[in-house]
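Model the whole thing, not chain by chain.
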Amino acid sequence: MSETQTSAITAESNPFRNGLWRQNPVFVMVLGMCPTLAITNSVRNAISMGLATTFVMVASYGMISAIRKLIPKQVRIATFIAVIACAVTVVDFLVKAISIPVYLALGAYIPLIVSNCLTLERAEAYACKQPVLKSMLDGLGMGLGFAFALTCLGMVREVLGAGTFLGVPIFGAHFEPWVLFLLPPGGFISLAMWLLSFAWWKERSLKKAEQEAAAPQLAAPVEVRS
Amino acid sequence: MNESLTHIFLDSFLINNFVLCTFLGMCSFLGLSGKFATAWRMGVSVMFVITVSSILSWFTNLLLVRFHAEYLRIIIFIVIIAATVQLTEMFIKKNSPALFRELGVYLPLITTNCAVLAVPLFQTSRAYSLVQSTVFSIAASGGYCAALVLLSLVRERVELSDVVALAKGTALTLILAAILSMAFMGFAGMGNAS
């Protein structure tokens, strides 16, 4: 897509954009499924869950990266989990202090950020090898990419399931809400549809690129023969 | 809270199935349901870890309440789970090296299975007694195991059939999970019968 832009600042030196789009945690890596499916029944919940996860990732990756040379290899996973659990405890109290309705809506899923496979995977794959600032940028990119994906899903589910966007009705009085989308199966279906449309889009752009690459190759031998 | 044991069992096994209705343990549910053989082994080891760690967390929670250190709950619970997983790993390695090789990478991953952390958190917030939380942990993890096995059976069948290339992979698994989840919604009616 933006190949020319990213080649100027290569993917490795730009961890922020990498997480946001190229290796989007939900749509590309399919990680962190529990909150993705459970908390996306409204846009507001999706955004707050995404931001909470972003905070945990930035804070814990900063810490993990700072102490990465002190951690013995055998107990690294346990250490990561302990650091992440501290950050999650902070977020748990923060959300409770900022907004009680959001805290009640997110419920058990805030403590469960600890066992989100996304947080641990990035700590293992990135933060324990890279310097502090880069790891925090990676956490920010991954977290915002996660928030973006949650919002995409939340949008579909709230608009179709309740006929509202951020709590504001958008279809008028005659709209019959498609309640299935607010219930658990709706989460599975809407994520499947997003994945399908991304796969379709990718295949289409690949085919286009192939055709463009094939066209001059076909033209060249014709000229030689003539 | 004085919920009857049968109600707790039915509620967490069928009505609010951990995987299909509350979306806990999704990663392993989508990742490990490809083959029936791996699925049931994973299900049984998760059941073991959940039951042991839930009982341990119940006693630890008593201590935390006694010393007014409830804010340490998340950290303590995850440490208990990590220790239980480590113990399970050692136990399986000693008693059945074949099974250990089979599960391999997946065993340490149980630590990051949200279903495992959710059971101690839920039993604390619902103030269950020791017997109630044991029943709850067995039923919840049994529900997880059942969902995993069901999906793996369906996926083994679908593997043999002709599917559009575009939909192969995660998208197809998600659609199958959606259909299973719709089937489990049928149990919602049992919720008021207790």
